[in-house]
Write a structure and sequence with these properties.
By secondary structure, the protein is of the alpha+beta class. It is built from 3 helices and 7 strands, in the order E-H-E-E-E-H-H-E-E-E. Strands 5-7-6 form a 3-stranded antiparallel beta sheet, with no helix packed on it. A two-stranded parallel sheet has the order 1-2. Strands 3-4 form a two-stranded antiparallel sheet.
Length: 137
């Protein structure tokens, strides 16, 4: 930790973080939120959102496939902003946009409503509200 985190930062972690690391974060003014874990190294998303409820009214996730997958699995997403670039990538080992458990059928997938499309240069922004947050599993 070099003390250069912008603004007031919050680190959500599990009981697995060493106390010495937590102390270093606190020394540079970072809040540390210890949460229960569902599996090794992964916080309980519901507990995280409950803890955040008193701190903020909205949360923007800009993350990789693992973070997005955890929130999709927890059915804890209200709105999606997906950017699509005019590039084709892929392959059997190519990374996915959203990891996690996935769904067994299209009926169980998150469905967007009030969908809007916007051209941003050569990219396309697709925005929509999640119409079915209830976990059907």
């Amino acid at each position: 930790i070099n003390g250069t985190l912008p603004g007031k930062s919050l680190v959500a972690t599990t009981e697995q973080m060493p106390k010495s690391e937590e102390e270093k974060l606190r020394e540079v003014g970072t809040d540390v939120l210890r949460l229960p874990s569902l599996s090794v190294g992964k916080i309980d998303i519901a507990a995280f959102l409950e803890a955040l409820a008193s701190r903020c009214q909205s949360l923007m996730l800009e993350g990789g496939a693992q973070l997005l997958g955890a929130f999709v699995d927890a059915r804890s997403i209200d709105e999606v902003w997906a950017f699509v670039a005019p590039k084709i990538i892929g392959g059997a080992a190519a990374p996915a946009s959203v990891n996690g458990l996935g769904v067994d059928s299209l009926d169980d997938s998150l469905t967007l409503s009030d969908v809007r499309y916007e051209s941003l240069g050569t990219d396309l922004l697709i925005r929509g509200l999640v119409a079915n947050r209830v976990n059907n599993r």
